[in-house]
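User: My collaborator and I are trying to settle a disagreement about how two of our proteins should look. Neither of us wants to argue from intuition anymore, so we agreed to look at predicted structures for both before our next call. Could you fold the first one, then the second, and keep them clearly separated?

Assistant: That sounds like a sensible way to settle it. I'll keep them separate. The first protein:
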Amino acid sequence: MKGKFLCVLITLLFAVPVLSFATPNITQVSYRETSGSVSPSGAWEEIFTVYSAGLTFVRTGHRASTTVNTGSWTINGYGTNEVQLLRDLSGAGVYGVVKTGEEGAKIGGGINVYTIQYDNGDVREVTLNSGYTYNNPELIITPVNTYIANVPLPAGASNRYKTD
């Protein structure tokens, strides 16, 4: 009996550290940007949500009588760029990016939010212009910004404001 208990104890001692340090897989990356201080009819919010198979892009206005070109667009098969972004973020150690402090929030500017969701339910988020500080936020910000800058938006989505 003593030998079985010792065997189980040794197995657990070796298994638990391996399980607790395994980094979960990234399932989704979102980037949300808001306009900040502009007239209410021109205020907007844009959200890019990236999955391994493509992305969705949503733009909303803050009022019913908005001048914002609102809509929701799905871009499938943008190539291997989505998969590459998820791999780059996984390999960059973004799971360790955490909030480290709080400074005074900036008044009047837009907000930029970078959110990474994992298959175990964990979420990592970096919110710029919010007054929070983070350790190594560029591990998330740089690859996501590079990806977003190269997304070929559909013709109907390219203008932020209505043109009619």
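The second protein, kept apart from the first:
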Amino acid sequence: MNELATVFRLIMSTSGLLVVLALILTLRRRSREGRRLTGVLVGWWGLAGAAAVGVTHLLAGPIPQLVPVGLGLGLVVVGVGLATPAVRTAFDALEDGDWRLFMGARAVIGSLILGSAATGLFPTRFALEAGLGDLAVGGVALMLPTSLANGPRAPRLALFALGVADFLNVMRQIPTTVVPWLAESGSPGTSLVLPWVLVPALIALNAHGLRRALKASTARIEVDAATAPPMG
């Protein structure tokens, strides 16, 4: 593994852990539910992060078959969070600047994915789709003129739906493209912090953003129905 690839792996590990830590601290600062969840979030992401760093930098991984395992566990946690009222309330307390910060972080991660491909850590096709997708979603989030927290529902629906669709494409390609490529090429791959820690955290953010936008749409439909003049 060349020196530049080692640097990119370290940058990915560091940036991924910092983004997730910042998200946990922001949730803690914004609401009582966020403060209550701090221990659980730190415990889970800390365990996942320690495992990812250990395999990546101490065992010189990733072991190809392990890549989707941590991602799958992370997605289970995301699903549980979507069904947990305290977690939903914590994400609902995020402000416009918070949403822009963490959605915008995807643009940075996208650029790192593209750079990682140039050093042989990702298959080119996957890196182009995932990296450019992250750049697009992050860029749109930063440029939207309306609030991402409680602005008009249509722009929020479009943004978060685009973000979720991009992640679905990434998750499809990890077992079908990335894992076989790692096994065949012998590449050490990027840091496991990306699929085990950062991707689940950003999927959670996008999923809760989409949930909020859909909730606003449903509420609007109910209001319109309630205020509509009686028929006949």
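Some points you might bring to the call about the second protein. Residues 218-229 have pLDDT under 50 and may be disordered. The radius of gyration is 19 Å.
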